[in-house]
Design brief:
single chain; MetI-like fold; 0% strand
């Protein structure tokens, strides 16, 4: 199987001259010059050597030079990544809060009208594609009701604060530019709400199932016998024990939220890493795509690590073990 894979790679892989032509600004550069450029870039070496060199560079965050912008790839990612992280984190937090809250309400009112309404809402949003939710919100809240801006990170007529962290909200607060901050928050609502809507359904479902199981436990019945109110029993006793499987799901959903941000940013022209990914695909910028894939993978690993740390906060027995 490995031998077959290497044979296929050798068949479909571009020649060194074709690879070098991606970096040549003039399409009429002679082949001799292209071959010399290919040697300097290492494209004339065997594929396994190129692959090992690439792995070495990846572990040192050297993703090479972008074939379009002619600058180090890490510099471009450093510019776009904070914008996407800000969007995804805010959208994810909003979706988690909505999902946990509605899941707990649905579980405490199971088999009632409230339970059925919540089920219907989250099933519709959960099964809807990202682009449909994004376009529906854009048409309704931006174009028809004119409540929110339809695209962009902020009003283009405003002066952006100096980039200190790369996060528009944080940089606005550091600079004390409250007008720009208000504009950033207004432009953030629609894309963040889209990410929240597409993610809260599965959280609601898992929270409901976990809460239903917790509410049937003996310690919950004992809490009712002690005379505690329904709110204290549901949100004080059963809720904490039902959060453990939800934390695992939140970490997994972070990866889906990052993937959904690619579509969301393209629709709302929210120029973060997702928007840059779409442009890289359209322009066949393979260097950028490889770097973005690595960055997305690292972010998901970090999200899972944070989830492991949260286990100890929610369930003290995890810390003991």
């Amino acid at each position: 199987m490995v031998a077959l894979m290497f044979i296929l790679i050798h068949i479909v892989a571009p020649t060194p001259v074709q690879m070098a032509r991606l970096y040549a600004p003039n399409p009429r550069v002679p082949e001799a010059q292209l071959l010399d450029l290919a040697k300097r870039l290492g494209y004339t070496q065997p594929l396994y050597v190129q692959f090992l060199d690439y792995l070495k560079d990846v572990f040192t965050f050297n993703f090479g030079t972008d074939v379009l912008y002619k600058v180090p790839e890490l510099q471009i990612i450093g510019q776009y990544l904070p914008i996407t992280l800000e969007l995804v984190i805010i959208g994810q937090i909003l979706g988690v809060l909505i999902g946990i809250f509605t899941g707990a309400i649905s579980a405490s009112n199971r088999n009632t009208k409230t339970d059925y309404v919540i089920k219907g809402v989250y099933l519709v949003t959960w099964s809807s594609p990202v682009f449909l939710v994004a376009v529906a919100l854009q048409l309704t809240l931006a174009y028809w009701l004119n409540l929110l801006p339809s695209s962009g990170i902020a009003n283009s007529f405003l002066n952006a604060p100096a980039k200190v962290t790369g996060f528009p909200i944080v940089d606005s607060i550091i600079a004390g530019n409250w007008t720009y901050l208000a504009s950033v928050l207004q432009h953030l609502v629609l894309p963040a709400l889209t990410i929240a809507i597409i993610g809260f359904g599965v959280i609601t479902r898992l929270t409901r199932a976990s809460m239903v199981d917790a509410l049937d436990r003996e310690y919950v019945k004992l809490a009712y016998m002690k005379g505690l109110s329904k709110r204290k029993v549901v949100f004080g006793t059963a809720f904490r024990n039902a959060l453990i499987p939800v934390v695992t799901l939140i970490a997994l959903l972070f990866g889906f939220a990052v993937g959904g941000a690619v579509v969301v940013e393209d629709i709302f022209l929210y120029k973060g890493l997702g928007y840059f990914t779409v442009q890289a695909v359209l322009n066949i910028d393979y260097v950028a795509l490889l770097a973005i894939t690595v960055i997305f993978g690292i972010s998901i690993i970090i999200a899972n690590f944070i989830a492991d740390l949260l286990y100890g906060v929610i369930e003290p027995r995890v810390r003991v073990s």
